[in-house]
UniProtKB/TrEMBL annotation, chain B:
Signal peptide residues on this chain, from the entry's feature table: none
Subcellular location: Cytoplasm
Superkingdom classification of source: Bacteria
Keyword terms of this UniProt record: Cytoplasm, Lyase, Phosphoprotein
Molecular functions per Gene Ontology: lyase activity
Coiled coil: none
Location, primary (coarse class): cytoplasm
O-(phosphoribosyl dephospho-coenzyme A)serine PTM positions: S14
InterPro entries: CitD, Mal_deCO2ase/Cit_lyase_ACP
Organism: Marinifilum breve
The protein's name in its UniProt record: Citrate lyase acyl carrier protein
Pfam families hit by this protein: ACP
GO CC annotation terms, alphabetical: cytoplasm
Length: 519, 95
């Protein structure tokens, strides 16, 4: 069957079940809800004054009675510095557990160690918002038994609530926790800020283990994760390396190209009709995206604009803007550098939120639905404004869906910032390798050679032209870039489906085919 | 013409190409070794561009090594020309 974007979607996949094709950004919402059956919380009980503390992680895992075919989940707040996921997989492997479904909120460079476990079939299914590095390569080559499922951040919450992901064991790292399992990332030697992604696991997993390198006296405050969801608590020597969370994404770029794109994007925002008191704003970390915040900050000061809130994906740059009074609050689902944790802890206007509140399409109060402006990156865009943030120029899996499609769908103005070509590869294509965010929810694509406005927003295009912004037809931009770079030879992909891209409502928006040889 | 010296032009920066020339014996022919970050997409294009510059400069016997980081065609042409002229000892101006 074909979905609304013309992608052939299999009706059924062995090991994953029936698939529903993507129909459109809001097509799943009937009346005030997305019809679905939600799971019920596991009933847990414990006798009074018994201890949850375990000697080590292995003992805690054993107490959870792991079994073949189980689903193990993690959060990725420590990003490239995570040390808990690999420890847990190694323990499960030593115990001989196999056919594991791995459902981490994302996977990073810290998880290349998963490769041998995938290759030998110990891990047979993966749900994640991102897959990178060597792991992405071997999945692209078809080494994972069942196709990986790429979901959005909001989609993951929906996946758990509807039972698409059924967590049997959740091992959740915390930078501070007490003996009952009240836990936070806001303080401690390995502080990483918000624990927003872990909340849904804690609430719905059959077995929850809190792992911390910093066991504090009872009670641990703030209780980002609360004790009545937690089965076991483990003190370990290290949960990872919090200094690797940032990986250079939180400083303003010095690249002249990125700065130029960001300057144009800020001008687009200024003339979008949304640049006024009470504006809400989200920006990604790194490259041109974060640089937009720099110019927006200057523009807001110049025009004396006071915004309402920022969400994200919070960098210390965003915290500076909060402290300057440019916005009234930050809603923080994930902190992009360890320094942000101090603000999460001490500033009542810096509000830690769950991923459910951030972006779940199946609730009535997702922050992304209250968003005015979001600025997002792209690996590729196409002439229909579809955006790819998951596969690289050879079709290999090397990125993250993250909150891209969540925020783009909710925001009044979704701005994509990207260079028109990178290292000779044109970024504007006839069709992106993989659609993560549909063009329907993308309003503007900003490149150094001009701004493309979605034809569905003629008034915006007119306003930008009037303000002197260079607005170009995306087909003309593509021709201009192709003439400079030459048209790249497209590599033939294989016939095997190695991953499915799940839209935030649970429908399948695209499939990823295998790549035969990766150079 | 036949290159007399080892020579190079370009850098390893993104969007540039490093071209190395090694002299070979007369009638050894052209040996061109290319590595590129965009090999899959532009291998033939890069090879053709290099051969075209070598044709224009009448270089038949040479070992040319190109390490490409996604240079555009005019960059490739300029780097190859500079490397060849250095290897012939006919470059004018500063090194």
């Amino acid at each position: 069957m074909k979905n609304a974007l013309g992608v052939e979607i299999p009706e059924y996949i062995e090991g994953l079940g029936e698939l529903k094709p993507f129909q459109g950004v809001w097509e799943s919402i009937i009346g005030d809800e997305i019809p679905s059956t939600n799971i019920v919380r596991t009933l847990k009980a414990k006798k009074a004054h018994t201890s949850k503390l375990c000697g080590d992680l292995k003992e805690a895992v054993q107490k959870c009675n792991p079994f073949d075919g189980m689903t193990v989940t993690f959060h990725h707040h420590l990003r490239g510095g995570d040390g808990v996921l690999m420890q847990t997989i190694e323990i499960l492997d030593e115990m001989g557990i196999k056919d594991i479904t791995l459902a981490s909120s994302s996977l990073t460079s810290a998880h290349d160690g998963l490769v041998p476990y995938v290759e030998k079939g110990m891990i047979t299914r993966i749900f994640s918002s991102g897959i990178r590095g060597r792991l992405g390569e071997i999945i692209s080559m078809g080494k994972l038994k069942h196709p990986a499922i790429i979901h959005s951040h909001g989609g993951r919450v929906r996946d758990i609530l509807t039972g698409r992901i059924k967590p049997d064991l959740s091992v959740l790292a915390a930078s501070a926790a007490d003996e009952e399992g009240n836990a936070t990332g806001a303080h401690g030697p390995s502080a990483f800020g918000s624990m927003g992604y872990a909340d849904i696991d804690a609430r719905y997993s059959k077995n929850v283990i809190i792992v911390t390198d910093n066991l504090v006296d009872y009670p641990c405050v703030p209780g980002s994760i609360r004790q009545h969801f937690v089965d076991h608590v483990v003190k370990v020597d290290s949960i990872g390396d919090a200094t690797k969370i940032a990986s250079g994404t939180t400083r303003i770029t010095k690249s002249p190209m990125d700065l130029r794109i960001a300057r144009i994007a800020a001008t687009v925002i200024e003339h979008s009709g949304l640049f006024k008191d009470g504006m809400s704003f989200q920006v990604g970390a790194g490259g041109a995206s974060l640089a937009v915040a720099k110019f927006l900050r200057e523009d807001m000061k110049r025009k004396d604009i006071k915004g309402s809130f920022m969400i994200g994906g919070v960098t210390s740059y965003g915290v500076d803007m909060l402290n300057e009074g440019l916005f009234q609050a930050i809603f923080d689902v994930q902190s992009f550098d360890a320094a942000v944790s101090t603000s999460v802890l001490n500033n009542p206007q810096h509000i830690e939120i769950t991923c459910d509140q951030y972006a779940n399409p199946n609730n009535c109060g997702a922050m992304t639905n209250k968003l005015d402006v979001v600025v997002l990156g792209a690996l590729e865009v196409d002439v229909d404004f579809n955006v790819n943030v998951i596969t690289g120029s050879s079709g290999e899996i090397r990125g993250a869906s993250g909150g891209h499609s969540d925020t783009a769908s909710g925001a009044n103005l979704s701005v994509i910032v990207c260079p028109s070509f990178r290292g000779r590869l044109p970024i504007v294509k006839d069709r992106v390798h993989t659609i993560v965010t549909p063009g329907e929810s993308v309003d503007v694509i900003v490149t150094e050679r001009g701004v493309c406005v979605n034809p569905s927003k003629p008034n915006l295009a007119a306003a930008l032209k009037k303000a002197g912004v260079k607005v170009v037809d995306i087909n003309d931009l593509k021709k201009e870039v192709d003439a400079m770079t030459g048209v790249p030879a497209e590599k033939q992909l294989g016939d095997k489906i190695v991953a499915l891209v799940e839209y935030r409502d649970g429908t399948i928006i695209d499939v990823i085919h295998n790549v035969e040889n990766l150079s | 013409m036949t290159p007399k010296f080892k020579a190079q032009a370009g850098t390893f920066e993104s969007s540039d190409i490093m071209v190395l020339i090694e002299p070979v014996s007369e009638e050894a022919g052209r040996q061109i070794d290319i590595s590129s970050t965009v090999m899959l997409q532009f291998e033939d294009d890069i090879k053709n561009t290099i051969n075209q510059v070598l044709d224009d400069l009448d270089i038949q016997n040479v070992h040319l090594i190109a390490k490409d980081k996604g240079a555009l065609t005019p960059t490739i042409k300029a780097r190859v020309e500079a490397a060849v002229k250095r290897s012939l000892g006919i470059q004018e101006g500063t090194m």
